[in-house]
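ok so I'm stuck.
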Amino acid sequence: MTNKIHLTKTRKQIHRLDDLPVYDRSLVDYSKYNTNVGHAGVKYSMAVQATRGCPYRCFYCDVYKTTLHHFRRSVDSIYEEVKMIADMGVKRIEFIDDIFNVKQKDFVEFFNRVIKDNLGVSFFFPTALKGDLLNKESIDTMMQGGAVGVNVSLESASTRMQKVMRKNLNIEKFRENLEYICREYPEAVTTLNTMHGFPTETEEEAKMTLDFILSMKWVHFPYTHIVRIFPGTDLEKFALEHGVNKGAINEAIDKSYHEVAPTLPFKKEFTDKYKLRFLKDYILNKERLKSVLPVQMKHFTEDELNQRYSSYFVSKINGLEDVLRMAGMKKDELKIECLKEEEVTIPDLTKKINKIFPVKKVKNDAFKVLLINISTHFTKDRSITEYDVVEPPLGLIALQSYLNHVFKDEVEGKLIKSRIDFDSYEELNELIKDFNPDLIGVSSMTFHKNFFHDAIAKIRECGYQKTLIVGGPHPTTSYEEVLKDDNIDICAIGEGEQILAEVVDRLIKNNGKKLNSNQLKLIDGIAFTESKTQILNTEIKPKEFAENLIWVLDWMNK
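replied:
not stuck anymore, here's the structure
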């Protein structure tokens, strides 16, 4: 008999982010991560999240479904955390916000404080700034404040496609700002994100985007990602309405962004020629390389640069020498050496972290929570990804920091991540047996959904029978699909701190036993299955959504 899905009342987002506890950096061993290149393309960095959500509604993105409102911490709160990290000796900080510069006033104020105190930190924006919101003042201020990695997203240079995807960038303003950065701040490492192959996109529109890239002198790392259509997004709905096969969508998800997807609206030959021209005329352009490589070598180690360029030439790049060879250049032409790792390492980091966040003592009978991040393939599977990056699971750090704040010594938490803490299912099962958790939480991105479900199956196979809750973008946007997996008890929808805390509280009061249907129905913001029940869907109604959207737009104009 088919199990029906219960979707409980939508849980309100946390409004005052300043009230959340400071992320406890001692919850993970940074020494395990620092030797890996992170999402900003660098090692030995720390991530900061200043905002949650996004006020925009781009149809390819699932952020607005996971966090409806865009909230941000105060400048004081952001700066205090950044200064704390800088005082540890960390020289690289990355902001992982979807859009950090929505409120220009706060953006400028933050960097003015950095300038005033001369923090001496390099800042990176791996998930992109909104390029058309920038102006000369904000650009000048962030550059003076230590911005090094400046990432902006265009997606498409077609005005029609901008409207279709609901991004609605001011393309000319975007161009003006990017040209200003490239011209006035050649020491900044710029990244430009574009996408290729949206449903209904024409060859002419795709050429417009390529021509935009080719006109830029010089972007350090431009990308022409082939579109991936993620489940639960409005892009998926749009694609299905315009003749894209669901099977093709599912097949494409597991492919790397450099691989040609079966969802393309034009022939593979066009895409092959598109990518070849991009690589030949821009990435391997001698004039460009002579301009950008000395800057890149100043800011990045050779290993970091190898990672970057391997995303362009998958399996063909083993080092900087290979890039130069393909471009017909020699290393001595550059007259510079790559940044040395010892210049960015952080001496005694663990000791410094533990001084700020002392080891938490817990009761002997403390409720045990094991949080698992499944977003990095095992070492043996590294060839699956084109750009192999590993970062501390900041989302799990946020969850456990919140639990520690709420429950004090009554809860003991442990955070683990694939490849870092376990590099096989056998190692994962050993960790579970040793810790013997009362609750397991698993998070993953949609890209890793097959890995995610396989890992959960292995957890159950090793004998774990207690509650298992999942969260993150994939469970939020695709909870119906996720709950087809009988190994999963609960899907957390959206923001996880308060949901997880309530689940833990109820489990403690229930002596660790699984919660029944009636108990689960009382928890806002979750989905679960039960036989012989009807779907209880209390998602946000159109009227409520409209009211929320009006509130967001009003807030943005303040």
